[in-house]
Amino acid sequence: MDRHHADEVHDGGVHEHDRGLSYDLPVLARRRMIRLMAGASLVPLVGCTSQDETSASSSASSAKGSASSAAECATIPDETAGPFPGDGSNGVNVLKESGVVRSDITKSFGDFAGGTAEGVPLTVTLTVVDAASGCGTPKKGAAVYIWHCDRAGDYSLYSEGVTDENYLRGVQETDDKGQVTFRSIFPGCYAGRWPHIHFEVYGSLADATAATSITNTSQLAFPKDVCETVYATDGYDESVRNLSSLSLETDGIFSDGYEQQLAATKGSAAEGYTATLTVPV
Questions:
Q1: SS3 call for 108
Q2: Can you tell me the distance from the alpha carbon of 177 to that of 159, in angstroms, rounded to the nearest whole number?
Q3: I need a labelling partner for 180 at 20 to 30 A (CA). Which of 13, 56, 197, 271 fits?
Q4: 246 close to 132: Cβ distance less than 8 angstroms
Q5: How far apart are CA 115 and CA 112, in angstroms?
Q6: CA dihedral in degrees (247, 250, 251, 253; nearest 10)?
Q7: Where are the beta strands (DSSP E) in 131-238?
Q8: What pLDDT score was predicted for residue 26?
Q9: What's the pLDDT score for residue 9?
Q10: pLDDT value at position 42?
């Protein structure tokens, strides 16, 4: 474990980068209750006449379709923002800095050191949609703030050696399709956490740059095979060892279910990757 993170891992391997899992437990409980309720609605009726059976079967099929539709369009799971959000909730607030609204987040901006995060190129596109509409309505005019660690597993503004940098953080307003796109680098894997990107959704760009009225906070996960390919390249040495002891199924955040948060990722280590995710809110 590197010197930056050795003092931030709790018992059980959960990394201090993402403390706050206790706050997520009520959310997990609600998800499990929803699954149980959905299952209960599909219990077959006993002692029906032939006509009743047909009606019951039709109703059950309809209920199953509705449940399936609801599951496919469930709101993105709420997750902890971790201790390094940079949104003013834990010290520094980058959201009020001029220049934070940008698509290329690889470089520091404003009065900071001006460094550039190195690594395999990554383009991230998030599509924010209205869950209540069945995920069919884009959320135009919303805003998304994303942040993640660099290839060494360090967070700008917080980690030793990069406190004077603010790269790998940025905000964008969603377009007519509900989309935002950021140019970044593939994040490293630090001890205790599966590779991920944090993001917050706001009702408007004004809300985001005022750091107020967050509507959703979640995390994006990456497929294992892509991570392994990226981490075989220069600069990701520590990530190889850290990833080998982790899995999505045992990660402290994604272990309760990651289907809605696993990005569709394409590309190559040589040319870079694209990661896309639909974010129902």
A1: coil
A2: 35
A3: 271
A4: no
A5: 8
A6: 140
A7: 137-138, 143-147, 169-173, 179-185, 196-202, 214-221
A8: 41
A9: 40
A10: 34
